[in-house]
Amino acid sequence: MEDEIKGYQFETCFGMGNCPHCVISSDIIAKNLEDILRNRDLKSFLKKRTGGSLKMHHELRVSISDCPSACSRPQIADIGLIGACIPHITDNYCNSCEACIETCKEDAISLNNDRPAIDNKKCLYCGQCIDVCPNGVLMKGKTGYRIQLGGKLGRHPRLAEEIPGIFEPDDVVNIVEKCLDYYQMHNKKGERFGEILVNKGRGKTLDDIFRYLLLHFI
Ligand code: SF4
Ligand code: SF4
Ligand code: SF4
Fold first, then answer.
1. Ligand 3: which of 90, 91, 97, 112 to mutate, judged by most atoms within 8 Å of the beta carbon?
2. Predicted model pTM
3. What is the distance between the alpha carbons of residues 157 and 145, in angstroms, rounded to a whole number?
4. 90: in domain
5. Is residue 93 part of a domain?
6. Residue 170 belongs to what domain range?
């Protein structure tokens, strides 16, 4: 079994060219991130930390999905990336066709005096309203990734928590590197990233921990 263990697992969704819901193409970032993971030799690292009894559940998981449908399950990965596009409302003429409202699965769009309004608390940045708007009222704004940290299954499963913001691919690579530095610096016995974040932040909220990570490592 140990021969099958790489020290990390890396997963992507079907991605660009294979899925109409793709918000961003992850081909390049996926290659860069897998190179980074391979070069860290996490298998040797984890072998030392676990005293030689390395198992599959110790492996660090990184997962990328190219849209919020999240087919590659980034919410249960140590580091999860979700493609995201913020709709930008232009000054173009809105004919109140309501195509955007019908398309939005989150019920995040309403029309106000013949102008669209987007509820940012509901919007998942899937970009589907942009594709159906016939008049270019809704256009692509900032496009990149949402980043979620600390998800896992196993004996004590937990969903990942999201760092606020949409990050461009170069920033994502930088943030992942810093997270890996933090993970390796604080890993004592092969713990998963989420356990490290929770243990380091005992008594603090996850928001505090992310603020600390952002300040010192990201
Ligand atoms: S995550 Fe989105 S883009 Fe990727 S396969 Fe699923 S639906 Fe398609
Ligand atoms: S980006 Fe997606 S979730 Fe947000 S308003 Fe448009 S369709 Fe709805
Ligand atoms: S799809 Fe475009 S034109 Fe139609 S209601 Fe929405 S914003 Fe207006």
1. 97
2. 0.92
3. 24
4. no
5. no
6. 2-83+143-216
